[in-house]
Design a protein that fits this description.
six-stranded mixed sheet; alpha/beta; disordered N terminus; 30% helix; Alpha-Beta Plaits; 354 residues; Rossmann fold; four-stranded antiparallel sheet; 2 domains; disordered C terminus
Amino acid sequence: MNDPQSVPPDAPSSAPPPPAAEPPAESASAAPDAPATVVVDHVTKRFGDLTAVDDIALTVAEGTILGIIGPSGAGKTTTVRMLTGAIAPTSGSVRVLGEDPGRFRRRTRQRIGYMPQLFSLYPDLTARENVDFVASLFGMLFGRRHRRTREVLELVDLWDARGRRASQLSGGMQRRLELACALVHSPTLMFLDEPTTGIDPLLRARIWEELQRLRNEGRTLLVTTQYLSEAELCDHVALIANGRLVAHDEPEGLRRSAMGGDIIDVETVAPFEGSALNDLPTILGSRQLGPRHFRVVVEDAGSATPAVVEAIGEQGGEVESAREHRPSFDEIFAELVRRDREARGEPADAEAVA
């Protein structure tokens, strides 16, 4: 098995790779023709009879955040381990920064930051010593190392706990310390395996601000998470369930794909059958939620809402409220997983997405 970290033999196996000069800042979003940083070409990974990853294919453009989202056991961590070179795919191929992860050159490994799912730093070192040690592996000199260590510990709200041993930190604090170590050398490409698990919402928001700042500088980030709300914070989202890539698109593209268009939530003063509007050219579909409550699917909610209100009035109804409904990503992913299962002839009850 290849060690993606290239650290001394006595260092923890998941400590990040050694150093590289910081890349120049680039535009906030990747250009349409931005080069591919990661290419996954129909990759499958089996462990005996278990297929952990099943024929996944996707490309990640430079200077973007890809959110890899799905329930526990979906195959997210296995996918990341193949991308870092920790394990080899059973079939298919992977290219990261133009190279096979199993044969990374040293200078390529130096451009990668990795935050593993499980805590793997030195328990007997303090929080500050852990970060400082990782920074030293990347060849950072004392002045810059000292400054950067403080910056990342402040970012993850651990500066006041810098003198505490890692073994004495809570589980959430240990996750934050892992993130600080992954960030300290400002890598070009980052793999973050559930970086916000166990972290309070306010700090989670701060961490995502930092991740987006790094993206705005031209860095590329692959972030696995079980928090579906974090999908909105990514440039692209890959939904994985049962080891399969169910969908891969921008967040808004996933929403429209799952729901068929925009949704207008309508409530009337008296009972009204929403299906009576199905003949309107602007209506793509409808769903009755109650005697006075229904939803219609349209191409564009802004232009279609007045037409819907007018049509209800022409049929003797009166609208109490009509507004665009933006489904949560829980709804979106549940629908996409349900469709995937049905398309494959599996039981229709969709796998829960935590």
